[in-house]
Amino acid sequence: MFGYPKWRAWTVIVISVFGLIFSIPNFLPKSVYEKVPKSVQEWWHPMTLGLDLQGGSSLLLEVQVNDLVNERLAGLMDATRTGLREKRIKFAGLAVQDGVMKVKILDSSDLYAAKTLIQDQEKNTYDVAMDGNELRVTYTDAALTALKAKAVEQSIEIVRRRIDELGTKEPSIQRQGSDRIVLQLPGVQNPAEVKALLGKTAKMTFHLVDEETTIQDAQRGKIPADSMLMTGDEYLVLKRAVVVGGGNLTDASVGYGERGEPVVKFSFDGSGAKAFAKATRENVNRRLAIVLDDEIISAPVINGPITGGEGVITGNFTLESAGNLAMMLRAGALPAPLEVIEERVVGAGLGTDSIHAGAMACVIGSVLVFVFMFAVYGRFGMFANMALVVNVLLLVALLSALNATLTLPGLAGIALTIGMAVDSNVLIYARMRDEAKLGRSPLQIINAGFENSFSAIFDAQITTLFAAIVLFFMGSGPVKGFSVTLGIGVVTSLFTAVMITKFLIMIWYTIRKPKSIQI
Known about the structure:
- The protein has 17 helices and 19 strands.
- The protein is 53% helix and 19% strand.
- By secondary structure, the protein is of the alpha+beta class.
């Protein structure tokens, strides 16, 4: 095929067509693209614009690890109370406050036995200090660090699930420091709904109602150690023991009750279904409270054993609140509350200005490159310019096909790619000039120009690619956006400069059959 290997020619044609097809959605008006069938939009779509280009919301969340520590120590407190009673060790003042569990052992001879009992709950987890007859229990530094790291990791995953359920496109969720999460939501101008969903831990548990202790006694402090006073639609005294927890839920969805009111249907996994069936079988005619985030949402009477592993949560739900609760239960409970400590909204107008400025930079850069290449290299400069157009189309097509998010630094990467793309052509043409001075034939000049300059071109591009890879793995946020476009731009530039430029030159050579080449 005009002195050019067929496999190379077809490679150039196929890849160029790919670039054209997958770049088209980025140039279509929104009203036209919306008419494209949804099944096609799943794979044929424009680049997603980042927060700084289309506007949106940015939230800085802090995982309240101290609350998690107190909750875990409260569980240790219950286990300690039971263990001390079993060993007949007398104690007083058992309480948890500010990350410390305190207990006073009344008989000094029992101090070491009590200390051993606490430390044996979880090996290498607790520091137990003695202050007279009082034991002060805290997490070890290593255990506290591990607890924080796990809480943040779990929080990031659950935040991602909840945001995905909302249908927000291309959210950015990143860890910052030891206990913070940065959440960026492109296109979301009012983050109130998001904050409402993230502000709930969605920790659901089931407890039997303590029907032997009255509300009045509980409010006066006369409450058994294994019970607790809790509020919701009504005050109730509940058993502390958890019948089954939300961690055993496998699904939750919105349904309708007997009177047509919205309810939340749920189902348990195997172990949860067994525990739920056992509890309902052994406590018929007793009330079972459903507690969400330390608040009772309903406490129905158990009319009979529930053995199917499924149930219904009733309450004063609207269709929206029932849907939100079902969504949070499906996503899972946060290990600790999240507090919004910073909120920033980027207006869509500012994003539009950024796009305009970035696009103008790319256009001006392209025009200057076009003019320079034509002025210096003439006809061969036009071949380089045509390859540059294909380069930009391929870059846009790959970003679209990979569903990458384009940010303002990413636009800067595209502008830089345009400037760097013709560097390879400059090297090729300089080599062709040298070959022409040696009196070579036109075909020898063309082949030697490409072959003898390839090593220099490859070395230059590969070093830039290494820099982009380092930026991607070492950087975050905007730096990653820049590195992605720069890295893809390096690959497309190498292909267009070496393959497409020669393809175009060989077509010209075959048609014109020049006796000499002037560059």
